[in-house]
């Protein structure tokens, strides 16, 4: 109240002061959103709408392409494999990232900066380069196989490239920062005194983790997982270079569009991917709101 | 249970957070740990709870060395500075936590847990709020949940880290009385951290004053108020005028030994007739009124004099005029109100 007083007096003194309000999205400043909006509409929304429309355009009745997708076992298998891969990658990334994020969230000073750099530098390196690096490591006569042969661990080189294992390894590596960063965010917000409180109340370290830390880190787990899962569903470069005989849906779309020139089919596949992604995201939003809602119900009543 | 803290020291890097602190607390006593921010109060509580290991010294429960016992075996009730309630658990589950995590042999049945939690919730007067989450509670209610959670495990010692720090004055005064009654009813050995000297004096059996990691003095509130050993204690418990002994000049009474002398603002008597001689057994200081604050039942005058400013509280009587700034005044302090200080 007392703070607002001088401001009001100022408005009376000079007429221009009354018009000079602080920034707010409602008061015309929304105009600032216009340039990015135009860009997005022209180069994203319109082409996307075009893709969706094309998926209904081919010969036959409008849903022909979708009928093909969901009746041909080859496309169904690609979709299934894509989901399986995304799930595996998400799970492995989570398992690998959780301890890393935990340690980094406790770090201070130089150790914190160093570990953040170690997480972020690969993140800024091109996916293509990292995929090629994995090819060098994983191919039939690659670094890994040569090493294991030398040490006598294996007798024949392992096949890592043609069966999708290599692709999954590379994808997990590429996705790690997408999991670590949301986890780190959540974990840094967890009050250390909560664990101390649990310890004083008699909880052993496992109980402290299961009953206090894990539930409080779940928002980070779900944010990271949804990010990695959705990114993996549409992943193109790594599956294309490292996938071998196994095809992910993004690779299939590319084949349909540029090799078979079957644009309606490519569009329909892309639309399916888009719809699934949107559904997953909605589901995630609902889940988060539900989880958060439990705590706010009483405030309303 | 009796609690002995035996010359405990703790260092964080270069910083000496605790420097050879020793206190003995008999069973059922409520001790206030009083000190400014950063003086090591929380660190000491954490060492007692086992959340921090001392570099030196021991913590004994009932004479038994507990220095190396893990926190979860110590059976201590700890109320954290900002409550540290589990945000994802309801009030009921927060309180039940300490029972649910007990080893299987000792763990009460679900029914017993319900009973004990309800009993404790009744004790802290939160019977109807069991289903709520911490975010839906007021500060005072959170405070009581934290206390209930600490009490439900039947602790041997209760450690309260600024339990009323974030609450407003009326709630504080109400809660502290209630806490005192509860503590006496349960006969719990308790350490109560605060940096509010009034709160400490109001409810505690004894006060321990901590500054920069050192325990300066322990004693009953009355002893500390009337016989502070150092100028820090004198200034921290109530306000005090602290003067170097030599600044008193020839008027210094015999029997004052320390390097400094203190007296309470209320003990000085102001008179404007500086010509009259000082009454017998009084120390006279003279100066001019510098500043005046009206504080309701008293008027606080700041008096400038060579050798340092002093503050004097004069009782306020309606209809009486204030002494104007610039007036020459004499301050008479009875000799028995002078406190010698070592430093
Ligand atoms: N884990 C730690 N690492 C480094 N320094 C610490 C650590 N814990 C406490 N300190 C330092 O030790 C000193 C004492 O801290 P402590 O928390 O005990 O103070 P306090 O008396 O509880 O203060 P407050 O009234 O502000 O809560 C502070 O200077 C603090 O910065
Ligand atoms: Mg503290």
Automatic annotation (TrEMBL), chain A:
What's the protein name? ABC transporter permease
The species is Taklimakanibacter albus
Automatic annotation (TrEMBL), chain B:
> Its domain of life?
Bacteria
Q: Which UniProt keywords apply?
A: ATP-binding, Nucleotide-binding
| Name this polypeptide is given | ABC transporter ATP-binding protein
- Native species: Taklimakanibacter albus
């Amino acid at each position: 109240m007392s703070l607002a007083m001088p401001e009001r007096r100022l408005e009376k003194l000079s007429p221009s002061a009354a018009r000079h309000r602080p920034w707010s999205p409602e008061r015309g400043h929304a105009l600032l959103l216009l340039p990015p909006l135009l860009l997005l509409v022209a180069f994203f929304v319109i082409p996307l709408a075009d893709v969706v429309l094309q998926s209904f355009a081919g010969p036959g009745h409008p849903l022909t392409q979708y009928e093909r997708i969901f009746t041909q076992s080859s496309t169904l298998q690609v979709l299934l494999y894509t989901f399986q891969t995304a799930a595996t990658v998400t799970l492995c990334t989570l398992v690998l990232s959780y301890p890393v994020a935990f340690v980094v969230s406790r770090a201070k000073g130089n150790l914190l900066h160093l570990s953040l750099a170690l997480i972020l530098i690969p993140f800024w390196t091109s996916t293509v380069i990292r995929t090629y690096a994995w090819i060098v490591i994983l191919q039939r006569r690659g670094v890994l196989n040569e090493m294991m042969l030398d040490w006598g661990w294996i007798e024949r080189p392992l096949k890592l490239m043609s069966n999708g294992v290599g692709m999954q390894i590379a994808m997990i590596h590429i996705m790690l920062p997408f999991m670590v960063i949301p986890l780190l965010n959540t974990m840094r917000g967890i009050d250390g005194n909560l664990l101390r409180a649990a310890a004083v109340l008699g909880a052993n370290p496992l109980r402290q983790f299961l009953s206090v830390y894990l539930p409080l880190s779940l928002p980070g787990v779900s944010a990271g997982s949804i990010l990695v899962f959705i990114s993996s569903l549409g992943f193109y470069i790594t599956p294309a270079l490292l996938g071998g005989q196994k095809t992910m849906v993004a690779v299939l779309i590319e084949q349909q569009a540029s090799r078979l020139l079957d644009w309606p089919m490519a569009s329909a596949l892309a639309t399916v991917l888009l719809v699934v992604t949107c559904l997953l995201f909605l589901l995630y939003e609902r889940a988060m709101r539900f989880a958060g809602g439990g705590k706010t119900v009483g405030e309303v009543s | 249970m009796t609690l002995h803290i035996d010359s405990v020291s703790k260092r964080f890097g270069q910083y000496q957070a605790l420097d050879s602190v020793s206190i003995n607390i008999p069973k059922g006593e409520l001790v206030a740990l009083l000190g400014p921010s950063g003086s090591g109060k929380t660190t000491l509580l954490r060492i007692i709870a086992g959340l921090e290991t001392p570099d030196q010294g021991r913590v004994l429960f009932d004479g038994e060395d507990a220095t190396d016992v893990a926190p979860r075996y110590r059976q201590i009730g700890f109320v954290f500075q900002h409550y540290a309630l589990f945000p994802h658990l309801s009030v009921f589950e927060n309180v039940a936590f300490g029972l649910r995590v007990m080893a299987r042999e000792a763990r009460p049945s679900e029914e017993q847990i319900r009973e004990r939690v309800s009993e404790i919730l009744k004790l802290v007067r939160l019977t109807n709020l069991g289903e709520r989450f911490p975010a839906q509670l007021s500060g005072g209610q959170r405070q009581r949940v934290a206390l209930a959670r600490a009490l439900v495990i039947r602790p041997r010692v209760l450690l309260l880290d600024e339990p009323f720090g974030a609450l407003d004055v009326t709630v504080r005064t109400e809660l502290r009385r209630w806490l005192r009654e509860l503590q006496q009813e349960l006969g719990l050995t308790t350490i109560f951290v605060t940096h509010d000297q009034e709160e400490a004096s109001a409810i505690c059996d004894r006060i321990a004053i901590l500054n920069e990691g050192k325990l300066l003095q322990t004693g009953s509130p009355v002893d500390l108020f009337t016989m502070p050993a150092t100028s820090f204690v004198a200034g921290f418990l109530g306000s005090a005028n602290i003067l170097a002994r030599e600044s008193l000049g020839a008027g210094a009474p015999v029997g004052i030994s320390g390097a400094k002398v203190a007296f309470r603002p209320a003990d000085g008597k102001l008179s404007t007739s500086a010509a009259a001689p000082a009454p017998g057994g009084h120390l006279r200081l003279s100066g001019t009124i510098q500043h005046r604050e009206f504080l309701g039942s008293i008027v606080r005058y700041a008096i400038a004099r060579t050798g340092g400013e002093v503050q004097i509280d004069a009782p306020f009587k309606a209809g009486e005029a204030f002494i104007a700034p610039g007036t020459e005044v004499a301050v008479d302090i009875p000799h028995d109100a002078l406190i010698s200080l070592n430093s």
